[in-house]
Amino acid sequence: MENSENNEKKQSTALKSIITLAGVIVLTAGIVACTMIFTKGLVTYKTNGSGGLSATGSASVDFEADLIVWRGTYSTYARTTSEAYSRLGDDTKKIKRYLENNGVDSSDVVFSAIDISKRYVSNYNDEGNYVGETFDGYELYQTVTVSSEDVDKVENVSRDITKLIEEGVEFTSNSPEYYYKDLDSLKLELVEAATKNAKDRIDLMAEGCGCRPGKLVSSSLGVFQITAKNSAEDEYSSGGTYNTSSRQKTATITVHLNYAVE
Questions:
Q1: Which pTM was predicted?
Q2: Hey, which end of the chain has fewer CB within 10 Å, N or C?
């Protein structure tokens, strides 16, 4: 009788071990299948110590700059400082008149401080050897900056400076820079959209795996990228890209979410 009872206990223990092992095999197979489904696309599924769902969402928007900044530098030369300052002053008046005639508001125009440097001429003897320098006068430089919300007008002004050159102004025009005044609001809208995109992906993965997303374990924000619209010239960088040379731009942001699984 005692041997019979022992045999029954051994059989019961063995049966429980088989059932437990089968359950582990089924659970493991389910996890593997779920992982295989969701690691083939752009969305990733991964498990951590307690299991989890992770996804990266993105959002982008095309927009147009509403502020233009244009700079130009002009210079003059004379044997004496007084003469050089006088000539530069005359050039400044010509530039102010040019901008005013083209409808640029004086409140949008800023003239920098004047930079001055001495100019020297190198001297050589009859054998072609350098023998020193001789003072040759003064060079003065000044920069004018125009910042305006009238992008079209300033663009036209920056492209047509022939009148200034014809009046004898030694003027060098820089390429305009384009900005967006309410960039902070644009960033917030993109973060909201990218977060929703990441959460939608989490929900999709959870549905495919037969589970539910639990608490948000962690989240991280990618760098804000502003590139020229429809251009491959700008490259994303780890520190973020901010294109100022293009009037038409594209802003992009990413958000990474990690949820526990219920």
A1: 0.73
A2: N
